[in-house]
Amino acid sequence: MTNWCALTLFRQHDLFGIDKTLGPVNPSKRRIILHRSPRSEQTANQALVSEEPLSIRIDGNPYAVIMRTPGEEIAHAAGFCLAEGIVDSPAEIGSIGFCDGADTNTVAVTVAAERRSIIADTLERRSYISQTSCGICGKEVVKDLQQAIPAVPDGPEIRSSVALGAIEALSRSQVLRQRTRASHAAGLFTADGELLAAAEDVGRHNALDKAVGKLFLKNRLQEACILALSSRISYELVQKAARARLPIIIAVSRPTTLAVDLAERLNMTLACQAPGDGIFIFCGGDRLPLA
To answer: Which CATH number among 3.40.50.300, 1.20.1250.20, 3.10.180.10, 3.10.20.10 corresponds to the domain 7-135?
Structure first.
């Protein structure tokens, strides 16, 4: 047991029951607001999506502070660690849990000794490329990420209608958005369109980390083929999806140019909804034949 904080630990044999011990969840809070129009003024009681900081500590040291919607913190931290290259498999997580009890905004992760020696530079941030920082762009980023992340294997082929159905299924699962109109969502689906995991958060990166983390901790990430997003597709989300070995991303909004550049280099498929019942495919079209 480490002594830098009192951990509520989830070791490897606990990971399959992780959802039962995620701590208090307050994804939204109600506020009295003023509703004004040219003809009237009245107060209303509306739900607003919650936003609080989550501190992630790796082997006793602060690693990142993320603004996120409370809930599913263990899955969030696990997905974040996979996306950052800190771990490649759940077995490389020595322990993961809340620091000082389940009612805090700090998750502590320890890394298995064999893995720790491999990622020494990452932990010291000498070769660190941020997934969520603003202002990082250009060809050098794509080049660096291509070198750090292996390309996704070819296939599988799925019908375009299945990909579009994933967006519709994700929308139906967005309970927090229906309540607050202010949250993003990410959903992971099989090649047949079965929803495996979904998550919502005020941050689109956080929603993806949470959804990935749920399957990652259960050793089921290999079952996922399609990533559906409620947002646009940015290069950071492509990077996270590539780390999770997700070959197909479909979103409500279009990708950025940098996202397409990176996806092409990593042999991924990017698509989004088109007017009517169509689909826009930006790269990797071989995976999405006509319905």
So the answer is: 3.10.20.10
Closest CA to 22 of 164, 214, 183: 214
Residues serving a catalytic function are: 134
**Helices 257-265 & 235-243 angle (0-180, nearest 10):** 30
How far are the Cα atoms of 75, 77, 152 from residue 211, in angstroms, in the given order?
Answer: 7, 11, 19
For the chain, domain boundaries: 7-135, 160-287
Residue range 36-62, pLDDT digits in tens: 666 777 888 878 788 788 889 999 998
**Per-residue pLDDT tens digits for 77-100:** 999 999 999 999 999 999 999 987
State which H helix or E strand residue 181 sits in: none
Q: Which of 280, 288, 283, 290 is nearest to 267 (CA)?
A: 283
Location of structure tokens 């000082």: 100
pLDDT digits 0-9 by tens, 99-154: 876 556 899 999 999 999 999 988 875 333 444 433 333 455 566 666 688 999 99
Nearest 5°: phi and psi at 274? Answer: -115, 165
What is 160-287's CATH number? 3.40.140.10
